[in-house]
Design brief:
single chain; 232 residues; alpha/beta; Rossmann fold; 8-stranded mixed β-sheet; 3-stranded mixed β-sheet; globular
């Protein structure tokens, strides 16, 4: 039985629906640095600040170039990249009319019936990269401080994970907070059971799950330490 399985209704896909302070206290998570894939409006910035995480130790990545420009105008560094499991693939990034909250590499599926007011408004032709390659191209980033990841990418979470295996193999990641789906909100999207299978390969366990009634939610996965219950 998982520690938390709840029902929650909200259309803001980018907000953390499990409180970060609650998670940090419950699991004694010492977050030294964050990899955040799917920055959107950096809604979690205040939550990170509350935990004492410096802006310089948060790596924000966002696919939408317009949002990246928005953050630059507000003196916040956000890297533009479409993160996937393969490099150099040209894709149609589908923009939606809800301030990009539902924008994705994938086409809308039952999302259209669950949120009929949300529609595709245009597409951007963009090129993919993996997290592993991203860090190779940005040697100025000190990725050694990163031990926490937050992934919000609207149905392609598994692709992101498959492209960041070096962070798992190096055993530096201690906790991953991730959006999960139990219904096909997007065409060919990954589902919760696939995310579970991936993490099991790297000795991560799902310890928290909070779902909406519409088939999406948040989960927390923790690496299972061999000798200590405190993550650092």
């Amino acid at each position: 039985m998982h520690n938390l399985i709840q029902i929650y209704i909200d259309i803001n896909f980018h907000l953390m629906i499990i409180d970060l302070s609650y998670l940090v206290e419950k699991y004694s998570i010492d977050i030294t640095g964050v990899l955040h894939v799917g920055a959107h409006l950096c809604e979690e910035r205040d939550a990170y600040k509350t935990q004492g995480i410096l802006d310089s130790n948060i790596i924000w990545i966002e696919a939408d170039p317009n949002l990246v420009c928005h953050h630059e105008n507000n003196n916040l560094k956000v890297y533009q990249a479409v993160i996937s499991d393969n490099d150099d693939e040209w894709i149609d990034f589908i923009m939606t009319n809800n301030n990009g909250e539902s924008s994705s590499m994938l086409e809308l599926d039952i999302h259209t019936s669950m949120y009929p007011e949300v529609v595709e408004c245009h597409r951007l032709r963009l090129q993919t990269t993996t997290i592993d390659t991203f860090f190779q191209h940005h040697s100025e980033i000190d990725k050694s401080v990163i031990n926490f990841a937050n992934i919000v990418v609207q149905g392609v979470e598994l692709k992101v994970l498959l492209g960041m295996t070096s962070l798992f193999e190096s055993q530096q990641l201690k906790a991953v907070y991730i959006k999960v789906l139990t219904k096909y909100l997007y065409k060919d999207c990954c589902l919760l059971w696939q995310i579970d299978e991936f993490f099991a390969k790297y000795s991560f366990k799902r310890v928290e799950l909070k779902m909406t009634q519409l088939g999406w939610g948040d989960a927390l996965y923790l690496v299972q330490p061999s000798t200590s219950h405190t993550l650092s």
